[in-house]
Structure formats: C-alpha cells, structure tokens
Amino acid sequence: MPLEPQLKQQLESLAHLIRRDSIDLTTQSGSGHPTTCMSAADIMSWVFFREIRLDQHNLDHPLADKYIFSKGHAAPLLYALMYRLGYLEADELKSFREIGSRLEGHPTLRLPGVVAATGSLGQGLSVAAGMAEVYQREGRDQKVYVLMGDGEINEGQVWEAAMLAGSRKLSNLIGIVDRNRIQQSNFCDQIVDAEPLDEKFRSFGWETVRINGHDFDAIAEAFAKARANTDKPFMIVADTEKGYGVSFLSGQLKRHGVALSAAEKEQAYAELPVADDLDIAALTQSRKDFGPVAELQPVRLSYSLSSADFDPAKKYAARAAYGDALKKLGGLSERIWVLDGDTSNSTYSDRFAGAYPDRHLECGIAEQNLVSAAVGVAATGKVAVSNSFARFFERAYDQIEMGAYSQANFKIVGSHVGISIGEDGASQMAMADCGFMRAIPDAVVLSPSDYVSAFKLTQALLEHEGFCYMRTFRGAASVLYSADESFPLGDYKVLRQSESDAAVVLATGYVVHEALKAADKLAESGLNVRVIDVYSLKPFNNDKLRAECESLGIKHVFTLEDHYATGGLGDLALDALNGSGIRVEKVAVQGWPESGSPEALLAKYGIDAAALYARVKQVLS
Asked: Does 152 participate in catalysis according to the annotation?
C-alpha cells in the first residue's frame, strides 16, 4: 500500500536534510565521503526513524535493536542520523574527524550505539550474524540491521557470513546493500560484476527483495516484508545513485571520497529542498524506553583444580588441557560461548560443544567470518572464544585487530603451534603468531607449557575483560606444576635456579621441557643456568626480569621458542633488557620448516635440548 502523500513528502525532506548534514560534515573537515552517504540517505532515514527500535536514553541498551554500518566510510550519514534523532548536539558535529572527537572518519566505539568498529570492509555482516545468533537462540525480540556497500561485496568474507546466516536461518538479521554502482577506482561492474546480487543472496538461503532505494513506497513495502519474514535472513538490494539529489554529483565516479567546497555546498543545498513544515518528531517512531539496565559484571569462575582432574605422572598436550578447562569452566557461566572453524576435534573445544551445544557455534572453514562472528557474539555481552589452528588465524589478522579495536571481549585459542606439530608440515605450523598478537595494543598473549598452566591460563583468559590469545601445542608433555600453582598475568615461573647461575634461559610453551633437559645436562657439566617459563608473553614484567638478571650479575640471556626469531620471546627479552648491557641470544626457528617427526624437526631447526646446550656452552666458553 502506498504511503500517504504527506508522509512521503516529509520523509523525502528528511532524507534531503540528512544529505545536507552529510555534505556539511565533510565540507567542514575537508575530507570524507559525502556522495556515499547521499545514496543511502533515503533507506537509512527510514531505518532509523521508522523501523529500528532504539532506547530514547541509552543507545547501548542491551534490549534495543542493533545496527552496523559495515559501509563504514558512510560515517557522516550515521552521525547526521544520530544528530537529527537527538543523540548528538550540533556543536559536536563540528569536531568530525578531529583529534579527540567521538565522530571519527569511520565509526568506532567512542560513539554510543556502535557495536563494532567498521571501515575495514566486509566484516559487518559477520558481526551482525554473531549477534543475531545469540538473540535468536535466547528468544530475544531484537533485530540486527547492517548496511553494506556494493563494492564491499567483493570481499569473500561477506559470502562466508551469508552462508552462515542462511544456514542458521537468522530471521532477525536484515541486510541492506546500497547498490550505487560506484566504488573507489571504477564502476562496480568494471571491477567485479557481482550481479545478480539478489539472486546470489537467495541462493545462500536468504529472503531477498530488490527495490528503488530512493522510493519511499518501495522502501516501506520492503521493510513490511522483512517484518513478516520468520524463517530466513532478509536482504534488501537497494538500487541507488551515488550523490543522489545533486545534479553535479549524481553518478559521478570522480566524486567518490571528495568533499565539496563551500561554494559547491551551497549549490548542492539549493538542489536538496527541505520542507518548511518538516516535523522530525512526528516522523520518529523508532525511539522506545526499555527501562533501566544493570551493569554487566566481569565473569568470575570459582574452580579449584585438583589431582582428581589430571594424573601428574602422565603427559598431556596443552590443547587437551584447554579442552578440559573449557568444558569444566564453561559450566560455571552461561555467558561463555565457543565458536569453531571445523577443527574442534583437534583443538579439543568439542568437549565444550558436547556439553553445552546451546552455547556453541560451528562456523565452518571460514576463519575471517569465525573471528568477526565472535566479535558479534561478544557485543551481546558474552565471552566469545574462537578456536582453530593458530596458523589459520593468521589469515584473519585484520578481523582480530578490528575486534580488539572494538573493545570486544573475545578470545582466540590457536592450537598446533610451531614445528613441534611434526609431519603435517609448514602450512599447518604457526611460526609467527606471537609477533602478530603481541603487536595488538592491550592484547593478552599466553603460552602454557603443561596441563596445569594450560588449565589455569584458560581460566585467566575467560575472566579477563578484552582480547586474549592463547597458543596451545599438539604433542604431549610432562606435568610441571602442582594443581595449586597460580599464574598471574604478566608474571613468569622460575623452574631451575641456583646461587651460581651463569646465565638465564627464557623458554615458552612446548620447548620449556627442552630447556629443562638442557639445564640438567649443563649442570652435569658444572654449568648452572636459571630456567624461566614465560607463560605470559604479554603483558610481561620487564622490571622483574631485568632486576633478576642484574642481581645475578650475568651477561647473557638465552631465549628458546618454537617460533620464528622475529616477534616472539626473543624480541620480548630484547625489549625488557634494552640498555642493560645483557646480551640476548635467540634460539629460535630459522628458515622455512618442513614435514618430519617432532623430535627430528626440533633437532634440525636447532631448538631442542642438544642445540640449546651447545649454544650455551659455545657462548659462555
């Protein structure tokens, strides 16, 4: 049914006003993407003023509907909508793209209502799918809206998310593709011809409609269908014009990402008429009062590990200990969710999945989607833990970094690290993961060496607020610690020491056991070294290590790691001891690894006990 003429005229005026605001924001800053905002102004005005349910006081209210501007360069459009809805003051708009402003070039969590930082294209649909999955499973009457650009559809992650959402039948997920046919360097069909977009999404299990994205009758009808839809995710492909409404901008490739001059702004305003009787308050149907909300408290897990949980005489893989911990600790908080990438029987996260299937999400072989979906799960207040081989998470580094930037409470646990995995070869071996993860601001990076440390560090990971990464090894190793040992973040454990230590050996993960064997052999030769298990690669107590080394009067620290020489434990030691005069000797993997038994590989690449023994003897002689 067509809209009432007066309502339609009011909506068209509102959309033009939003276009004016988007132009004004970008002109005053001298940068930004006004034309990309203009193409989506009609449909997003409908979404924000007529469709989405927002709390009138708190944009972050956990019971409200959620929105994601995956097309993050349309940030001025979002800010204009927030301003006209009364969530932003006019003075704040003047700070767009300035240092310290909440109104950054792309949306961030500085601004209330933003659930995930965007701008790195292709990730928003995955985040939305993660959120929608939680809401659907918990029977919550909430929808998630996500705006995407048509150039963004080039990203393979979009189709990973489309497959997941379709297979999960996420009927509370509504996607919008702003099909303005222009991306940064050319017209979309000259780069990758993705048509027919609506049929492609339909083939992935979505309900789809294709509309004129500037026709409010068509927009209203599309969202009526979306509301009536109950068994599939819903995608609206909106055919639009970039720069719509202004003759010298509409459909112009060269105006992508170009702010208007002051004179051009006035000319554009003249072509964007706004009715004198525009009544924004009367148009606003989206604001609700969801009531007060309790502050979400950190997860605290009360579990005392005992000898009943493991056999101190046996050997365990760190991944197996992690699987035990995840299952036992997962029963202590309904907020813990686990996501997998078709490796759960290798990472041992299947133990959680078997015990708590209602809090487990299998994402398939799609690591980028796996990570961003976890960011979405975390955005609903959950503790989201993603699992795969550590090597495969490297392809999702951008997604991990964007999740951490989004302040998401998500965790990455990567198994099969280093050459110690053996015969599977280099494509399965994480050799640079510590460098990747340690580079992320505020990240926590953990590397257990036995059953007890893996179990206790899993608990620390789940309780920590924010991004954590833990690497778990494949092979079985002896138990080093008693069940009552504690592992504070940022600390380390001294496993061998004497009053006559001539050097310090820092080791982490699986090769801690090699360091201990080397230390015992060195002691037999009359040379004592202190062995330290660095289980917390970030944070790390630089001052404590420096003081310990200086108190011994040593001149050499050796680092042993199943990792490349760059980015890992060796670099950590260099940072900690910089300027001390103590020399750091890195014992790490050099060159490309290969297939072979773990023992043969450790020996060939010089990170076993014999290699460390020889290196220490050589340097200290």
From this structure: no
